[in-house]
Each structure stands twice: as structure tokens, then as C-alpha cells.
Amino acid sequence: MDYSSLKQQLMERKKTVESRIKNSFSDEERDTLSFTTGELSQYDNHPADTATDLYEREKDAALMEQLEHEHEEIEHALAKFDNGTYGICERTGKEIPFERLEANPTARTIIMEESSNHWDTSHPAEEDVLEGFDTFVFDHISKETQFDAEDSYQAVASFNENSMIFEDSSLTEQDELIGYVEEIEGFLSTGIEGYSGSDNVEFQRNVHYDHYLNGKN
Description:
Elements: H1 4-30, H2 33-37, H3 47-83, H4 98-103, H5 111-116, H6 149-157, E1 188-189, E2 202-203, H7 207-216
Antiparallel strand pairs: 1-2
Helix pairs in contact: 1-3
């Protein structure tokens, strides 16, 4: 079969890719972030500004990686012209349909082999190995003595002596009211508009209120 038109297409695409790599990304890859942004230092910049610059550099790096991968695929396809294996499936040895090569001149396999090589992206790959908390609990195995997932949770939970419900989440073992200037602020509240008179102040019957009363007794 005559693949000369495809070879010419690959050679032209190779020149285009090499030109884009050389002209668009070579300087960007060498320069530091400070050089490309014109800033002597990044310390005085707002994090959002720095993040934008970083995003642009990462985007360019991703485009560079994509172009380099395409260049490798083109080189591989052209090498197959030299050794007479272009158009032959690398897995099955079958001839790749010309229509497939027209659509993708760097194709290495027939379409069925290409489809079987794709990862299932319908769910995160981690779900294949993370089967839930019970997977790593071995209490039902009489000979198992290892420190398992349940033991890990129990070890961490042993340090949590505070019930951590909302009302007392800021009350520490030393009876400090963290986050309040005055003790009464722990159980007094106003509306969203702030203090507008004593008539609009409400008492919250929470642990801070009980703590305040017990301290007065």
C-alpha cells in the first residue's frame, strides 16, 4: 500500500511541532518566575498574582510536554517507514486500516487494541484499592495481631477528651475562653447589626454561661 502521502504529512507536522517547541517554549523554560514577571522578588506580591503567574507557567509546561510526546510519536512513525513496518499493528501484526492511519498517522495499533489499552476513567483509580474502613480491620482473624485501622482510630480518639460539641468547643482543659476578650462574651450575643442597646442583647444558655455562674459561686 502506498503510504507516501501519510509520510509527507508526518514530515510536515514534525517541522511544525519542532518550530513551536523552539520558538514558543525554549526561553520560557529557561527563565525564572521572577524574570518572566519582571519582579525582583515574589515575596511582596499578592498570593493570587503569584498563583496566576504560576498557572501560566504550568500550562506552558503541559503544552510543552504534549508537543514533545507528539514529536516522539512522529519520530517513531517515520522510523517505521525506514524499517518497512509502517501500517502494521505492533501488538497483533495485522495491517492497520488505511482510514485509521488517515485519521491518525502515528497510530501504532488497530482500533480494537487501542481501545483495550484505555483506563476506565468513570471513577477515581484509588477506589480500586480503597475498599472502605473495614478492609483494614482484622479483629475477626484470631491469629492477627497487627496494629490495624481500628486500632489507629482508637489511639487517636484517646486524646480527644473534650466532647467538642459547638457550645463548648472553645473551652479548654484550663478553663480558658479562647477567642473572647471578656468572659461574658462567651454567652452574650447580638443581632447581625451588632450592639444597638441592652434591650437587644440575648443570653445563650451554654457551657460558658454555666462556667461563668460557677465561677461566681
